[in-house]
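Because discrete structure vocabularies remain unfamiliar, we turn briefly to a single example record, giving the amino acid sequence and backbone structure tokens:
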Amino acid sequence: MAKTSSEMVGRVIGIDDATPLEFWVAVDKGQALQLDDVVVVDRVMPDGEIVKIFGMVTQMRARHEGAKFQSDVFLIADGVLPAEVSEAALIQPTRFEPEVLVPPVPGSSVRIAIDSERDAALSFDSVERKLPAGLSRSHEPVYLDLDFIDGTKGAHINISGISGVATKTSFATFLLYSMFNSGALGAEAANTKALIFNVKGEDLLFLDHDNRELTPDQKARYSNLKLITGPFRDVGILAPPRKGDANATPATGSRSVGVSPFYWTIADFCKQRLLPFLFADAEDERAQFTIVAQEVTEQLAHLPTVGDGAVSLDGVTIRTFGQLIDGIESKLMPEDPEASPDPKWTGRAVGSGTIGAFFRRLANSRRHVEHLIRSDIGNAVENSLDIDSHQVTVVDIHNLHDRAKRFVVGVVLRQAFEAKEKSGSAKPLQLVVLDELNKYAPRDSSSPIKEILLDVAERGRSLGIILIGAQQTASEVERRVVANSAIRVVGRLDPAEARRDEYGFLPSVQRQRSTILKPGSMYVAQPRLPVPLLVEFPFPSWATRPSEASIQIEDADDPFAELKL
């Protein structure tokens, strides 16, 4: 409910304790308060100094005063029993100015904080680089402090919520759009890169197209945030090749134009020691066969490169993943029953069962990743994975098997992380958006991918690589990944999940409300404020599905496309 003036809305109650941590306010007749309203009350100190106590409404109650029994409500309604209706609001202080931590005096008048007082209550007045994060329920801008995102004072954003309802990915992409278009990053925005993993559907394959379903009301919401509307301007779409396609045609259903395939050459796979990422399963990292995997990885790294991304093993040129598996088999499981496995490839003495366990898993991975690891394509080296050519790069993995997804996420993250290490500078930033964190950094297991994500969470701040991670259940994600996120965001939560300790930063009322949040509404907690803010972010101004694209995707490169509409 928007307030146009700082009129008195109530007085501090005297029959309930008023403390510097919380106090109750009786709402005056003809006035109204609602959850999330921001208020201010003045406290005059003995020396005449005025302390402004700012706070937020975190709970409301209404009751009959004068009633003794529950059934009295009927008598009161019939006018038989006299009683007064009273409303009260619980206020949680957000700031004291100056910082003298005293309670408000009972009877003190309370007013709505607007304009400069609202900015002071939410600490927006002390934020140098304001990142628009959405609007309050009264349609006023809500900001994040970019210093707690880009590594200046903190880094990383973590988003939790039910799949399909919490709109986690939509909010993540809105924050990216805000970073690139709000001016908060200044001149650095032009060189800042974003890497987005598209893990579900094809919603993120149309970021570079206007949303034709954006209404004037939604455009006005962008105006309130001083943001222009439109698509992401520089987007590269990468998709895996179709299985069995000799030309590595990208495997996308609704978009074929402007999409490039991604894959790794056989030489890349060997020289970059990518084999362990094929076994990034929870149970695999602790298994004995990883001893063999480590030795095989080292031997592959020393194979000579020949031709266009191929390698040579015992004089045989290897261009496909299937050929590579055959070559490894010849070293571990020779056809001659009298021959022993090559000790250089198995390392210290291991049993045939351990070797067999390794090889079975390697062979089982073939059908899931052989189209991603290959040198049987012309100009394979020039056409392999590239995440640096565009400001925003979307890596589509939604159609891949879980094992292939883990491989792609792990390898691409390592590539991005190592690139930032080599650059020696935290600027420009490298932003990474990854949903389903519980799959890649599970709480109770270890894997190569999890180790990289931990590196990003713990060292990424100094390197300039920022993780915007999301998951349905934060309770299933490695604690250190979540704990290192300076900004915590919660959308609609499952009731059982909302009771977990991971959401202790939410007051009890907000935990309850999180189970009924509507799409587009998020609770945002940031270090500057003791109370999470409810944020409503605008409908995307970029297309999130083919029907929303401003022009047909297949006609995107046709100069006469507009004449066909």
